[in-house]
Every structure is written in C-alpha cells, then in structure tokens.
Amino acid sequence: MAKILLVEDDDLVRDMLTQLLERAAHQVTAAANGEEATHYLKNETPDLMITDIIMPKKSGITLISEVRSHHPNLEIIAISGGGRLDPTGYLDLSETLGASVSFEKPIDNTALLMAIDLLLHGKHERVSH
C-alpha cells in the first residue's frame, strides 16, 4: 500500500481515480488544486503524487516545479486533458520539470496502476541499495 496524493480539480475525475486507487489498496489523499496540495505537502510526504496540469489557483506545472525543489525523491505522475493546447505539450513540459510519467486523459486505468507499481517498486529498489 502506498500513500498517494491525488491533485485534480474535476470532481468526477478525482472521485473516479480515488476509487480506482483505493481498490488497488492505496491510501489516497485528494486535493482539488495545487494550493491544497502544497498545504498538504508541508506536513506530509506521500510515496507518489498524481497531478492534473490545468487547474485553477496553482497549475500542475507550478506544483511539479515546487515539489521537485522541496521533495526531490517524490515520484510524480502528470495527467492532462489539454486545455487550449494539445495535452502532449503540457505533458512533455511536465516531464521536463520532473514528472516521472505522464498520461493523457482519458486515462487508461490499467496503464496508470502499472506505472504506479513500477515507480514504487523502482523507488524501493533504489532505497535498498
């Protein structure tokens, strides 16, 4: 079981992903925007963060940049439906700034769960050496 911070402004997507992750035996803390996530990260360190890119108050791009400087070992998965641009541009930028993996919406649930397992397994591999 991993502690996952899920940052997503769309209520339906956030609820669906929370249910998916909890069914996969993860402990999920959900935030509706980057500001809520930043507040949570002041007191907690999850094993992994999944963040949307296009959000009000604080974008996922800004959040990823901040998290990289304060939590350099935190695994990050970026997700985006695009906004005004093609989602690929946002997702490429998110990976440049430090996201480990990125997914375009709608998300392939199986691929997301596999990516989480691989990132967490890899993290434990690095810790054990």
How is this structure best described in words?
By secondary structure, the chain is of the alpha/beta class. It has helices at residues 11-23, 34-43, 60-70, 87-97, 109-128; strands at 3-7, 27-31, 48-52, 75-80, 101-104. Strands 2-1-3-4-5 form a five-stranded parallel sheet, with helices on both faces. Helix 2 (34-43) runs parallel beside helix 3 and helix 3 (60-70) packs parallel to helix 4 (87-97). The longest helix has 20 residues, at 109-128. The protein is globular and about 35 Å long.
Order of helices and strands: EHEHEHEHEH
Which range best describes the helical content: under 10%, 10-25%, 25-40%, 40-55%, 55-70% or over 70%? 40-55%
| Biggest sheet, spatial arrangement of strands | 2-1-3-4-5
| Total helical segments | 5
| Separation, N- and C-terminal Cα atoms | 21 Å
Secondary structure category: alpha/beta
Give a quick set of tags describing it:
single chain; 129 residues; alpha/beta; five-stranded parallel sheet; 50% helix; 19% strand; disordered C terminus
Summarize this structure briefly.
50% of the residues lie in helices and 19% in strands. The longest helix is centred in the last third of the chain and has 20 residues.
